[in-house]
Write a structure and sequence with these properties.
It is a single chain. The protein is built from eight helices and no strands. The protein has 174 residues and is an all-alpha fold. Among the domains are: 63 residues; 55 residues, no CATH class. The longest helix has 22 residues.
Length: 174
């Protein structure tokens, strides 16, 4: 138990026990009214009532006085299984990257569409089998330079004239 939790328990357990004695008018009691109890401990009546209600509802256990965890519970924000299955089917069928998958599913799931990073996490959870890895097209080639190509957009005027004159020469000859 953390030190801050111990402080909460040391403060509130005696206050709540005094509150019960004061409320039930059991003698000896240090305070005649609940108002006096609140003033002595510098708390509001509303705060005392809230802590007492939590304490009684949970069977008067000390842990019920500690603050509850806040925020999303683990796994509560996970993508639903049905959506995950559809993403995996599309990935295995088309071999799309995460951005293409987001664009593909956006019209169907609207604001429930997982982010590109979530798409990658989903793909990592469901790894591909050997047969499915072959379906995805890869740009891997056997020899170096197989993927290389050249685009020529401008040719010098002299070279064009040379090609034209050669074509004219072959056309006149043939």
């Amino acid at each position: 138990m953390h030190y801050s939790q111990q402080i909460i328990l040391k403060r509130w357990l005696p206050i709540l026990k005094e509150y019960e004695r004061t409320k039930a008018k059991i003698e000896p009691r240090p305070f005649k009214f609940v108002k006096n109890l609140c003033e002595a401990h510098q708390i509001s009546n509303k705060e005392l009532a809230r802590y007492y209600r939590k304490w009684v509802e949970n069977g008067r256990t000390p842990d019920s006085l500690l603050p509850a965890k806040r925020g999303a519970k683990p796994g509560s924000r996970r993508t639903p299984k049905e959506i995950e299955r559809n993403i995996i089917k599309a990935y295995r069928k088309f071999g799309s990257n995460r951005y293409e998958l987001v664009l593909f599913f956006k019209p169907y799931y609207m604001n429930k569409t997982p982010s590109p990073a979530t798409m990658d996490r989903i793909k990592a959870r469901y790894s591909l089998k050997e047969k499915e890895k072959k379906i995805i097209r890869r740009y891997e080639k056997q020899a170096p330079g197989e993927l290389a190509h050249i685009d020529v957009s401008k040719l010098l005027k002299d070279i064009r004239m040379a090609f034209k004159s050669k074509e004219l020469y072959t056309a006149a000859k043939g």
